[in-house]
Structures are given as structure tokens and as C-alpha cells.
Amino acid sequence: MKILVLNCGSSSLKYQLVDMDGEKLLAKGLVERIGMAGSHIKHTKVAGKEKFDKDVSFPTHTEAIKFVLDMLVDKKFGVLKNLSELSAAGHRVVHGGEDFTESALVTPKVLEGIRKVTPLAPLHNPANLQGIEAVQKVLPDLPNVVVFDTSFHQTMPATSYLYGIPYEFYKKEKIRRYGFHGTSHKYVSQRCAELLGKPIKELRIITCHLGNGSSITAVKKGKSLDTTMGYSPTAGVIMGTRSGDVDPAVLIQLASLGYDADKINEICNKKSGLLGISGVSSDLRDVEEAAEDNNWRAETAQNMLIYEVKKYIGAYAAAMGGVDAIVFTAGIGENGIAFREKVCKDLEFLGVKFDKNNNKVRGEEVLISKKRSPVKVFVIPTNEELMIARDTQRLVLGSAPAKKAAAKKTTAKRTAKKTAAK
Ligand code: AMP
């Protein structure tokens, strides 16, 4: 079964084609600047590493998707004989609100549900919807599945998801903690259980997704118990340009100084975090380099992130009544060798016996604590696309019309084989 995984932003489209037979990545790519001057596509055919890298005009997502589909069947850069080999498309959707606790097969009702929660993700959900509608336009018979960043966290209890503001704001305005990066936290926690060789239902895992955007999750018995991102992805630890948690009085003070909602939004999401504190960059590598040159602000920005990650590890271990494993993932988590060592320093009291030698890896799945460490620490590269492809396969195989289509395909294949044999 071949599945096209799509992640549509307002002007971008990331895609992967996955063959679920062996979970092999066949092709991947990125379209940027959709609807703007200088739109561009980078496409890679994984086997043979053929690359297509050109400026192409894409007025809307529909033209971009059409082009991607042409690439997939192209003689040189393609990986499919024809588009009928595609079984489904799986779409990343940022916000599913409270209604989507699971991934879903796209129906008009599901699309309506995604539209309904758009006020919670005004930039992301419309872009995600554009991607789905573009696929529906170009390949009307292809089943579509949506996988939400928020659904994994829908298991959080009210004690984790409510804010200490009047309850009516939750009831009327749906103001609560939602949490994000759910697909990543789910993937790495499941993979961690596999690596430990234990049922996830017996484990307490802290997953640290640390990249440009960062969030940490307490995964107890396979379910999200708490997570650092909240109503929006601005909350939690400091990030590349996002502030992380701040006292609401700080925002009230900014408002009383004359900053309006848009300006405060820009400050908290685009000008804060590593960039805002260091004044150097939002990229941890640049901040680390500046810190080495004795730039105090850069050193402090880096240390804030280390301190906050450590603090949440402690908090979530307490919240779960202990911890069996800690997982690092995403850009910083997978590559930040010095960073990981600093986070795990002084965590012996918790049962972490760190192994500096094992830790000398980037982007590889590896145990970075000692084998006999009571709390195991892993680096597990995240794979959200694979998670989306798996959910898509599960839902499509479970749906009646899709089953029919799959059966039709198998019969067609058999007939073709028989004809060939004759
Ligand atoms: P992501 O958003 O997951 O792509 O992560 C991007 C971030 O990973 C960058 O902004 C860098 O701060 C960080 N990163 C990538 N490589 C390294 C590295 N070798 N050391 C520290 N941080 C890194």
C-alpha cells in the first residue's frame, strides 16, 4: 500500500511517499512560496537519490499538488508507474480541538469539524484544509485521512488541561491546554517501549521534543498525562523564537504600555526565546558558539533552555510517581550532544546514569545512559510522517468503501497476472 503524506503550511507543502510494505520511504519533497513570486520545489527520489530542484510557478496548493503527483510518476524522478498505485493521502492537521481524539478518515463532517476549530489555529488549520481540498480536486477517488497534532494529548485529565481562570472560559471559549507535537510524542514513546521490550502500559516515559518549537510530555501507560505546550504552541520551555511560559501579568503590562494584541503576539512568538534572550540567533548552534565566545546573553539563553528542560523532567517524574525512560528527539534533542549531557547532569538522584560515550551521536536511535541505569535515556529520531502513514493505512483498511477499492485493486492485479501468465 503506497501512501502520500502531506504537511501543508500556508505557503508550503512537505510531502513523503511511503510504501507501507516494509515502511519504505520512496520519495520526498518540499514546495515553498506557494502563491508568491519565486515558488520552488525540491523533490528527491530516495533510491538513486535523483533530485529535482527548480523554481516553478504555483499560484495555489492545487497546482503544487498536481506537480508533486506528476513528479511521482515522472520517468526520471518518479517512483510510481501510475497514480492508481496510490492508496491514500494522509494529512497533518495542527488542531483537532476537543472533538478529534483520534485520526479520522475525511468526510464532509470531518472537514466541517476542522473548520469549526479554526479559531484555535487560525494560521495552520486553513492551510491544512487547503491541502486536503487540493487532493480531493485532483484525485477525487483517493481516500484522505487527517492526523492531528493535538489528539494524542486528549487523554490529559482536567487537572492538567484546565487553566486556573473562571471555568466559563473553558466551557464557552474552549480555553484550555491542548498540547501539540502529539504525533511525535506518540511515535517516540511507542518506539521507546519497543526498545525497552516492555508493554507501554507498564511504562512512565518523559518525551522531550526539542527543536525550533519544543515541548515535553509525561507519557504514563502510553497516554499523555501532561505536556508543556498549552492553548497554543507558545507555552512551555523557551524555544527558538517563542517565549515559553510567562506570567500573564507580563502581557497585561505590555498591553498597558500600548502594545496591541498583534504586537504582543509577534513579540511572544517571533522575537522571544533563544533569539530574544541571546540577541544572536534562534538556532541553538549559533547560540552555543556565541556562548563559547563568552557572550553572557547567549550563555544565559542556552542555560535557560537546559534548566527548563531539567525542571520539567523533575516535575513530570513527580507527576507520574517516577520515570522509567527519558527520550530526546527533534533537531536539538537528536543532535545536541553537549546540550543533552548538560540536561542529564545531576539527574543521578532520579536514577539517571548517563554515558558520555554513548551520547556522542547525532540523529541516531541509541541508548545514551548506561545499560544498567535505572532510568534509561534514549535518543530516538522522530518520524511524524511514518506515524501519519500508519494511521492512514489503519483507517483506510478499516473503512468499507476503501476496503472495496483495495479488493478491486487486488482482483485487477490478479487478473493482470493471469493475463500475463497466459
Ligand atoms: P527542528 O525544528 O526539529 O528542525 O530543529 C531545529 C533546531 O535544531 C535548530 O534550530 C538548531 O537549534 C537545532 N540543532 C540542529 N543541529 C544541532 C546541533 N548539532 N547542536 C545543537 N542544536 C542543533
User: Which radius of gyration do the C-alpha atoms yield?
Assistant: 23 Å
Poorly predicted spans: 415-422
What is the mean predicted local confidence, pLDDT? Answer: 94
Reading the helices and strands in chain order gives EEEEEHEEHHEHHHEEEHHHHHEHHEEHH
Largest sheet: 8 strands, mixed
Small molecules bound: adenosine monophosphate
Helical coverage, percent range: 40-55%
Query: How far apart lie the N and C ends?
Result: 26 Å
How are the strands of the biggest sheet laid out side by side? 5-4-3-2-1-6-8-7
* Cα shape: globular
Total helical segments: 15
| Number of DSSP E strands | 14
Structural class of the secondary structure composition? alpha/beta
Strand content: 15-25%
Write the layout of secondary structure elements.
Elements: E1 2-8, E2 13-19, E3 24-32, E4 40-45, E5 51-55, H1 61-72, E6 86-93, E7 104-105, H2 108-116, H3 124-138, E8 144-148, H4 158-161, H5 167-173, H6 182-196, E9 204-210, E10 214-220, E11 223-227, H7 248-256, H8 261-270, H9 273-278, H10 284-292, H11 296-319, E12 325-329, H12 330-335, H13 337-344, E13 366-367, E14 376-379, H14 384-398, H15 400-421
Parallel strand pairs: 1-6, 6-8, 9-12, 12-14
Antiparallel strand pairs: 1-2, 2-3, 3-4, 4-5, 7-8, 9-10, 10-11, 13-14
Helix pairs in contact: 1-3, 10-11, 11-13
